[in-house]
C-alpha cells in the first residue's frame, strides 16, 4: 500500500529495560522484526525506522532490509524528537502515516487492517486521525493524515505528540475516528523485563482470544443485545460444565471454552453462519478457535475421543434456545415437529440429536453428574466471575 507509510520509533535509551530493546528476542525474533512484519503483512511498503541509542547495532541488523533507516542525533531529548526526525524524513508524498514504538510488538495485523478499512472511508476528510481502541482505551498504532505533519513538526506544547493529539481532538472532534478492535496488544508494551516476560508467555496463545477480546470482537461487529445475551448464556453453561471437569482433575482450558461460547454465533444472520463466523474469527487473527466455530452447529461427537472445548460448547448451546434455557428433549421435539414434512432436514435433526446424546453421556461419565444436575447446582469459578465483571464493564 504505497499511499500509507509507517514510522517505527526505536531510538530510546531502553533505560527501564536495562538492555537494548529493539533487538531483544520475543517469540523467537527481535522486537523490531515484529513491527516490520506487521506492516509488511498488511501491505505497507514504505517503512521508516528511527534509530538513536546504540544506532550502529540496530542499523547493522537492518542493513539489506527493505526499510528506510533514519538516525536521530537528538534522541536523548525524548521520543518527540524521534517522531520529528521520522516526519522530516517522510516528506509529504504519503497520504498518511502510522506511528508505532518498537516496544509495542504484538499488535495484530487485523487491527491495522481495521484501521486501513476506516481510512478508505475517511481518507478524503482533511486532517483525519484514526486510532484503535480496546475496552474504551485507545492504543497503538494511530494513523495520521499527512496534513498533520507540519503541525506536529511545529508543535511546541507539552507531552509531545500525545499533547498535540489532545488539543487537536478538542478543537476538531469530527476528525477523530476511533476503531474498536479485539486486540489487547494495542495496550501492551515491553518496557521492562517483567513486561517482556509477560508478553513472551502470551505469544503462543495469540491465536486464541481472551474473554475480553471475544467481547471486543462482538462489539466491533455490532452484536445486538439478543446475540450478546444468547452468547453469554451459552458461555455460562459452558463454564459450568468446564469447571466440573476441572474439579474432577481433568486439565481443561475453561477460558478458551468460554471464548468459543461467546463467539460461536458471531456469524448469525448470514447463510451458513457457522462457516461465516469461522472466517470472521480467523480474519480477526484467532485461528486457534476457527474450527470450533465452524463445527458448533454440527459437531462430530465420538464417545471414545477426549472432550474438547468445541464439543463442550456444542453441548452447552443445546441448552440455550434464543435467550432462554431449554431441556434437550423439548428442544429436539420442537425441531422434529418443525421439520416433520422435510425428510432431509429431519434427518439432520436426528443426526444432531444422536451426537448430542454422545456428548451428554461423555460429560456424565467424566464428571459423575449429568449436565442437567450440573446446571441445577453449578460450581463457582473465577472465569464466571470474570465474565460477569467484563459484561458490566462493556455496558
Could you explain how this protein is built, in words?
It is elongated and about 75 Å long. The strands form three sheets. Strands 1, 4, 5, 6, 7, 8, 9 and 10 form an eight-stranded mixed β-sheet that branches. The longest helix is centred in the C-terminal third of the chain and has 25 residues. By secondary structure, the chain is an alpha/beta fold. It is built from 17 helices and twelve strands. The mean pLDDT is about 95.
Describe the structure in brief.
This protein is an alpha/beta fold and about 400 residues long. The chain contains 17 helices and 12 strands. The longest helix is centred in the last third of the chain and has 25 residues, at about 345-365.
- Would you report the number of β strands? 12
The major pleated sheet works out as: 8 strands, mixed
Number of helices in the DSSP assignment: 17
Which oligomerization state do the chains in this entry correspond to?
A: single chain
Helix content: 40-55%
Mean pLDDT across residues: 94
Tell me the fraction of residues in β-strands, as a range. 5-15%
Low-confidence stretches: none
Tell me the Rg in angstroms. Answer: 25 Å
Q: What is the string of helix and strand elements?
A: EEEHEHEHEHEEEHHEHHHHHHHEEHHHH
Structural class: alpha/beta
Termini Cα gap: 37 Å
